[in-house]
Amino acid sequence: MTSPSAVGSGPSAERHVRGTPVTSVVVVQPTPFCNINCSYCYLPDRADASTMADDTLRALFGKLFTSGWAAPQVTVIWHAGEPLVMPVAWYERAFALIESLRPPDVGIHHSFQTNGTLLTRAWCDLFKRWHVGVGVSIDGPRRFNDAHRVGRDGRSTYDKVIAGIRLLHAEAVPFHVISVLTDASLGAADEMLAFYRAERIDEVCFNVEESEGSHVSALFASAAPGARFRAFLEQFWREARRAGDIAFIREVDGMIPRVFRPEGGTMHNVQVEPFAMLNVDCHGNVATYSPELLGLGNAAYGDFIVGNVNVDTLEAMRASPVLAAMARDIDAGVEQCRATCDYFAVCGGGAPINKLTENGSFASTATGFCELTQKIPADIVLDAFDRLQGVPVALPPQAPAARRTIPLVPV
Length: 411
Ligand code: SF4
Hints:
411 residues; alpha/beta; binds iron/sulfur cluster
């Protein structure tokens, strides 16, 4: 997840709160409910079957489109619960409503992150009709997937997800997969690759098991997770390229354009720009910055909610004291990153949720998460080009990040 203003240009809390936001990602929670119960899930209300009302959806997109904040291209990610527990007809209505409100100079791209257990031909028809981006969460072979991704009865989800993936193939629906890497799967790069190849999965994203909310990552607590992650990723990349049938590995292929970019390109890290992401729950409550903040609580920032689309204007949310406190501290953290970190050029100051969870403060810098998601992938790419060229390649000063075409979505 990742528009707006140039991170490399020296953002300050004051500028953020005063400058006109540019919203390029809207994460919408049609329902907090999830039909399965992953052991590492950070979503606190996944047994809550509340659903978003049409009026809330109309208020959200009506206010966004009349605010002038919408970027020329807005990605709408339906997530934060299992989106497919809502009926296909609900999305047909929702997409048509958004389309009826959309200004002609704003493009909308819908995207689903799903656990894949509820996929049917009717969903595939919807995806194809609306050109929906689809991400399926599966953690690799059965033994890794079922260690954490289990049903509410504690039983395996693997066969249902595989059936869903095969249906997407049969219906010619493009999709990518997000796999959470855990302590166990980190040592099994070849087994993971064999799994993707067997299931003809050619776009792969790895999320490392994080400490978020109340979940404490066993991976982060293990010995030398960084070295093990690096070994995994190097081996996976090497063997995937040799096999030639994995077209995209987000951690590598998403990093290459961030390291080797056109001079003067623009850096985007939507997690540190207020309202670059609008994160909206089914009741219309709005948070920004890292989407995982919505639903959590904190002594300094309360529930991170800056307003509600049913009663507040976006301008009123921008004047929220909660936003001011978060902007102050998140910007302080970004400035510390800029001043101290060699990887700022490709990272832009990291993910506030991970700084808060791991360091206890937004106004901080390095985390275990940034080592795994920024530093190690950047080092792998740079080392590969060193070997290719025979001379060391340095990170560009304040190198900007390319926009990811596959959103980074927590699962
Ligand atoms: S890699 Fe970590 S320390 Fe460096 S800029 Fe990103 S969040 Fe900050």
